[in-house]
Amino acid sequence: MPNVVPLNSQTHRTLRVQAEASARYGDNQRFVPVIVGEFSLAAIHYPILLSKDAETGTFYCGVMLGFDAGENLFLADGKGHDGYRPLNLQRGPFYTAGSELAIDLDNPRVNEPDGQALFDEAGEPSSYLQSIMALMRDLRPGLERTKAFVDTLVSLKLVAPVSIDVSFDDGSRRDVTGLYTIDQEVLRGLPDATVVSLFRRGYLQLIYLMIASLKQVPVLAQRKNRRFLEGT
Amino acid sequence: MVQRIQSVVIVGGGTAGWLAAGVIAARHQARRQAGFSVTLVESPNVPIIGVGEGTWPTLRTTLEKMGVSETEFFRQCDSAFKQGAQFARWTTGADNDAYYHPLMLPQGFSQLNLVPHWLGNDRGTSFCNYVCPQGEICDAGLAPKMITTPEYRAVANYAYHLDAGKFAPFLQRHCTEKLGVRHVLADVASVNRVEEGPYAGDIRSVTTKQAGEIAGDLFVDCTGFNSLLLGKTLGVPFKDCRDILFCDAALAVQVPYETPDAPMASHTISVAQKAGWIWDIGLPTRRGVGHVYSTRHISDDEAHDIVRRYIGPQHAHLPIRKIPIRPGHRETFWKNNVVAVGLAAGFLEPLEASAIVLIELSAKLIAEQMPANREVMDFISARFNDVTSYRWGRIIDFLKLHYVLTKRTDSQFWIDNVDPATVPDRLQNLLTLWKYRSPWFFDEFDRLEEVFPAASYQYVLYGMGFRTEVEPLDNAPTESMAAKHFNENLSITRQMRQQLPKNRDLIRKIYDYGLQPV
To answer: Which of A20, A230, B384, B443 falls between 20 and 30 A from B129, CA-CA?
Structure first.
């Protein structure tokens, strides 16, 4: 159970947080939520797809990083995250509570001796903490913008299940279910006025980034195949 | 001159009227621009008889085809999941006497009949648990799907329980706002008929008190027990079937939950009584309880006592409403240019929730077979009558099956029910046949849209302890396949019990987040 408390420069003055990308600290996720602001960076590395929140059934955008549960094919021990590291991984143990920054004290990143300091001797935020604060400033409104984008996709019936069925060189197969993408048939059939409205809101670009990023699926499969060949 | 069928006039609102309007209008949306119209004339004064809070899985397809959002249907009609029915005390009347009629087909139903295998190596498991997971899912109070399952899709097959008083207005909004159905609130003062020509006797129009004359090419009679067009105007007689199904009255009561988050059953509970049975249906807001009984076997007072005892002394103040039941149906359902749907066509005790499914099936048949013109209407109506008569007959048979299999002799009602003189010939013959061969797949039931498929007969027959002779040599060739299906069912049951949420928890999530369309 997370133990989330508001961050305080007094009580948490000496706290250190491990920022490195590593499976040990929870970067080993097959599907990581992203906000629309990350789409252009994410699309050149990963498939951007939709999935359903297990608790609410609502759609959210995310990047596919692997084929099996807990598999992030962009992690290598001690080498950090290959390619763009999504904000949701970058934020580590941090949350926002209202306008305050909060921290999950039970997160394995917290209290690691070789971690990053949060405050300097004077009690001022360290450069690491400043970068987290900046990240959170992007993330919070970004989540709302992303939700509005996803709601629009759903209401226009632009969301369709995608079947990702891949065979690997070791003879195994993966049929990844529960992922969704843009229904290009429906997209082509949209009335002109709707298309213009999508364009004006910047959504059309996001839609085409999602479509283009589908080409990352075979690239991702190759990455997994290489691991089989390397025997890792 | 060929008179095209362009204007459909539905007389009467309620569940029947609005479902018929929705099904017909949705099917013929494309023809609207060519002048095709659906009008529903409804009295502002006649109250809706809220029959049938139980439905069949067909309603999912019906609503989806009408373009209704399942999420909104749950939120606005106090709808809940129904995964079949549990029948208690029907066989022996003992405390532990209960079986399920679930909505899932037996495992591997299209490949193999598991009945002889279950009979041949009875492992102390009920037939239902032997062949499908749904009984255990109901016992555990689980929902038939998850919040991530799209609208109308199922993990375990399901229908709904709903508040009929909210369902009709909900359909009305959808029909008028989305499907272009014209809604006229007016009382019908007189019915005007065609006086001469080849179609003399047809209904030309209805004259209303508030909205003048409304003409139509095809009239759908949804006027309830009144049967204003088909019964009163065209004089089609009513065929009473009280000699087969004795129950002729119901006492209905709405029972609140002890707490708003009390567990809610995801199946209909039907508990046999001295001279009838009690339904118990879980809606999110309340339980609907009703006592269906035979007035020839007990008095109204005794019937009241029985339902009062069932709901308990803490609910002694709740009002009880009496609903008369006249079991039976019209001799024909479509005559001239009038077709009856819903109570205007007939009514049977709600033992297997057949009222709404019959409305859907009739409306669908009308929508799909919509006559192009008056000239071909009589062919289509003959076909409609043939199919619909068959359906009523099979439903009567199936309801009677529940009674005829009883071993109860503790009251005259149950003794009278097994009297062969009260059992239809077809059912009588089938019961003889089933002693030597169990019903399966297509062999008895040849209609494309059989209301109750052979699987339903299996669940009731073997749930009530019916025995079919088994020849072990017959079983031998399929023994390993049967074992495979049996094990498959065990594994599906385990998996579903793990992944499915509690019934009420899912309803709450549907209120909070909604189900996704895909």
So the answer is: B443
> Is the pTM for the entire model greater than 0.80?
yes
Determine the Cα–Cα distance for residues A210 and B20; give it in Å rounded to an integer: 42
Integer Cα distance of B284 and A147 in angstroms? 29
CB of A108 closer than 8 Å to CB of A26: yes
- Domain-embedded: residue B32: yes
Domain count for chain B, please give it.
1
3-state SS string for B226-273: HCHHHHHHCCCCEEECCCCCCCCEEEEEEEECCCCCCCCCCCEEEEEE
The edge-to-edge listing of strands for the beta sheet with A59-64 is: A31-33, A59-64, A48-52, A179-182, A159-161
Q: Which domain holds residue B169?
A: 7-53+163-240+327-393
Cβ separation A154–B513 shorter than 8 A: no
Which are the contacts of B75, defined by CB distance < 8 A and separation ≥ 6?
Answer: B510, B511
- The verdict on residue A231 lying in a domain is no
- Residue B358's domain is classified under what CATH number? 3.50.50.60
What is the rounded CA–CA span in Å between residue B174 and residue B159?
20
Token pair for residue B476?
């031998």
Report CB contact under 8 Å: A57, B146. yes
- Total domain count, chain A: 1
Active site residue B435: no
For residue B512, list chain A residues with Cβ-Cβ distance below 8 A.
Answer: 56
> Six-digit token pair at B85?
């029915």
Of the CA atoms within 13 Å of residue B441, those in its CB half-sphere come to: 9
Chain A residue with the nearest C-alpha to that of B149: A57
Report ipTM for this prediction.
0.86
User: For B140, how many CA atoms within 13 A lie in the half-sphere containing its CB?
Assistant: 17
Q: How far is B494 from chain A (nearest CA, A)?
A: 20
pLDDT in tens, chain B (518 residues): 578 999 999 999 999 999 999 999 999 999 999 999 999 999 998 776 655 589 999 999 999 999 999 999 999 999 999 999 999 999 999 999 999 999 999 999 989 999 999 998 766 899 999 999 999 999 999 999 999 999 999 999 999 999 999 999 999 999 999 999 999 999 999 999 999 999 999 999 999 999 999 999 999 999 999 999 999 999 999 999 999 999 999 999 999 999 989 999 999 999 999 999 999 999 999 999 999 999 999 999 999 999 999 999 999 999 999 999 999 999 999 999 999 999 999 999 999 999 999 999 999 999 999 999 999 999 999 999 999 999 999 999 999 999 999 999 999 999 999 999 999 999 999 999 999 999 987 665 556 677 888 999 999 999 999 999 998 888 999 999 999 999 999 999 999 999 999 999 999 999 999 999 99
Nearest CA distance, B496 vs chain A (angstrom) = 16
For residue B190, the cross-strand partners are: B207
Give the torsion sign (CA, B438, B440, B446, B452).
positive
The answer to whether position A210 is within a domain reads yes
